[in-house]
Amino acid sequence: MSEIRLDRIHNKYVVIAPERLFRPNLNCRSEKKSSVSLICPFCDGNEDLTPPEIFAIRDNEANEPSWRTRVVPNLYKAVQVELADISKRDGIFESIPGVGAHEILIDSPCHECDFYQLDVSAIEDWLRSMIIRIEDLKNDTRLIYLSIFKNVGINAGATQEHPHTQLLALPIMPKDEMAFLKENMRYYRSHGRGLIEDVVCNELSSKKRIVARHGNFVAFCPFASAYPFEVMVAPLTNIASLCKCSRKDVSDLSILIKRVFESLHKQLGVFAYNLSLKMAPLNTNFENEIYMNHLDKNYRFILRITPRIYNLGGFEISTGMAINSVVPEESAKMLGGE
Question: Residue 148's Cα: distance from chain center in Å?
């Protein structure tokens, strides 16, 4: 039976409609790799095919083979750090130059290794690389918001097979994130707790949608999952940003990420997905300054994994609402939930 649920974190309704799982136009779960043989610029040994690296975890000279992770500027950058942050007005229309940073974190040298295939130490290197880049990008006070995301597979918008992560820093706050900061502050003033804190607490109490726990982190299928087999990972304490994690936190989170992807692969095989990190803003500006002093008390970062096993349709695009054909409680049970 269908149900309409409210996603409290994103303040959006989601239609849970298990009957639609059996519609005939559902895409195949697995994605075949491209048969086109091309030289991969992200593979070990092809360092001269990318711009000079910004950062790498390696034991030798920069821009040489034998690295564990590597961060380079995006050749097809959406924004540029070299531009001046000067706004323009044309009547009621306002714009600023495309100021920002757009970087590529090459997850590992392995061309076909997803997280379920990597050692925990390799996932730790991936997380450590992001933490170091977050700390560095914060030094540019023009940069206010950082989007960290992965597109894996054609259905998820990937244009490069080699596993990689994109870091895109902007001089403005996205409207959805501003709306969340405002609602989170309202909730905190009413309850003394942040919104994500209570979502996590509710999931732990319910136990219906828990996928796994390890150390200071829990993975669960959200009550109002927008996608089949969607998984969120969140800390059990208020950690506003990935760069606030301790060394033990990074180790625990790496183990849990590997466990989640092993479970997803067991159920879905090779699948397309998006992964994103929702964190506190990088820096303060006029939009977010009233919220920044409270983030250590009311904000928790979340890592969101959204499998893309079918395409969005007209309803989703026209309403901004998702239709999910797999009940989150069933997803959690299939992924080995508690």
Answer: 6
Asked if residue 102 lies in contact with residue 167, where contact means CB atoms within 8 angstroms, the answer is yes
The Cα 257–Cα 245 span in angstroms is: 15
Name which of 44, 106, 97 is nearest 74 in CA terms. Answer: 106
State the pLDDT at residue 338.
Answer: 57
Share of the chain above pLDDT 70, in %: 92
Q: Are 162 and 44 in contact (CB under 8 A)?
A: no
Per the listing, tokens 């009957």 go with 19
SS3 228: coil
Q: CA separation (Å) from 161 to 112, 293, 336?
A: 8, 41, 29
Position 254 scores a pLDDT of 98
Domains of the chain in start order, with CATH, are 3-334 (3.30.428.10)
For residue 263, with 0-12 CB atoms within 10 Å meaning exposed, 13-18 middle and 19 or more buried, which class applies?
buried
Contact indicator for 331, 309 with CB cutoff of 8 Å? no
102 forms bridges with which residues in the sheet?
Answer: 168
**CA dist list (Å): 162 to 45, 199, 242, 262:** 14, 34, 24, 19
Q: Is the pLDDT of residue 35 over 60?
A: no
Predicted TM-score (pTM) of the model is: 0.90
pLDDT at 271: 95
Query: Residue 134 corresponds to which tokens in the numbers above?
Result: 């977050």
Listed in sequence order, the residues at least 6 apart from 79 whose beta carbon sits closer than 8 Å to its beta carbon are: 98, 99, 100, 101, 102, 168, 169, 170
Q: For residue 168, what are its two tokens?
A: 């895109």
